[in-house]
């Protein structure tokens, strides 16, 4: 019973948190928790302590790796644009679709957070709907909260 149960009359009786004919399937979902706190990044199912990614674009142990996905900057561009400047593709749906990060306005680019802080940080330069550049940073802290700093 792979050490996770007791064999009685040639049948494994599994200890709590284990299942399967040989007690070789862990019911512990901890190894499947992605950095955002979701099981398999919300893009798969946790089977025997391993993610089975159901979204074919995503892979890796917690379905967080995506080779064909947009970068952080492009992914959040529309939400930053509507939250900071009230324009862009998501202007009408901004309050529903773009409430997933904390936003701070700064006066100039040199007031943006700089690399070297404890949280992973992306510096972004994107074009808005009027073909003007705007600048922002995107970071996620240890509590899983996303923080955006945008130049006014």
UniProtKB/TrEMBL annotation:
<keyword id="KW-1133">Transmembrane helix</keyword>
<dbReference type="InterPro" id="IPR013111">
    <property type="entry name" value="EGF_extracell"/>
</dbReference>
<dbReference type="GO" id="GO:0005925">
    <property type="term" value="C:focal adhesion"/>
</dbReference>
<keyword id="KW-0245">EGF-like domain</keyword>
<dbReference type="GO" id="GO:0007229">
    <property type="term" value="P:integrin-mediated signaling pathway"/>
</dbReference>
<dbReference type="GO" id="GO:0005178">
    <property type="term" value="F:integrin binding"/>
</dbReference>
<keyword id="KW-0812">Transmembrane</keyword>
<feature type="domain" description="Integrin beta subunit tail">
    <location>
        <begin position="73"/>
        <end position="152"/>
    </location>
</feature>
<dbReference type="GO" id="GO:0001968">
    <property type="term" value="F:fibronectin binding"/>
</dbReference>
<dbReference type="GO" id="GO:0019960">
    <property type="term" value="F:C-X3-C chemokine binding"/>
</dbReference>
<dbReference type="GO" id="GO:0033627">
    <property type="term" value="P:cell adhesion mediated by integrin"/>
</dbReference>
<dbReference type="InterPro" id="IPR012896">
    <property type="entry name" value="Integrin_bsu_tail"/>
</dbReference>
<dbReference type="InterPro" id="IPR036349">
    <property type="entry name" value="Integrin_bsu_tail_dom_sf"/>
</dbReference>
<keyword id="KW-0732">Signal</keyword>
<dbReference type="InterPro" id="IPR057243">
    <property type="entry name" value="Integrin_I-EGF_CS"/>
</dbReference>
<keyword id="KW-1015">Disulfide bond</keyword>
<protein>
    <submittedName>
        <fullName>ITB1 protein</fullName>
    </submittedName>
</protein>
<keyword id="KW-0677">Repeat</keyword>
<dbReference type="GO" id="GO:0043236">
    <property type="term" value="F:laminin binding"/>
</dbReference>
<dbReference type="GO" id="GO:0098609">
    <property type="term" value="P:cell-cell adhesion"/>
</dbReference>
<dbReference type="GO" id="GO:0045202">
    <property type="term" value="C:synapse"/>
</dbReference>
<dbReference type="GO" id="GO:0019901">
    <property type="term" value="F:protein kinase binding"/>
</dbReference>
<dbReference type="GO" id="GO:0008305">
    <property type="term" value="C:integrin complex"/>
</dbReference>
<dbReference type="Pfam" id="PF07974">
    <property type="entry name" value="EGF_2"/>
</dbReference>
<dbReference type="Pfam" id="PF07965">
    <property type="entry name" value="Integrin_B_tail"/>
</dbReference>
<dbReference type="GO" id="GO:0016477">
    <property type="term" value="P:cell migration"/>
</dbReference>
<dbReference type="InterPro" id="IPR015812">
    <property type="entry name" value="Integrin_bsu"/>
</dbReference>
<dbReference type="GO" id="GO:0009986">
    <property type="term" value="C:cell surface"/>
</dbReference>
<keyword id="KW-0472">Membrane</keyword>
<keyword id="KW-0325">Glycoprotein</keyword>
<dbReference type="GO" id="GO:0098639">
    <property type="term" value="F:collagen binding involved in cell-matrix adhesion"/>
</dbReference>
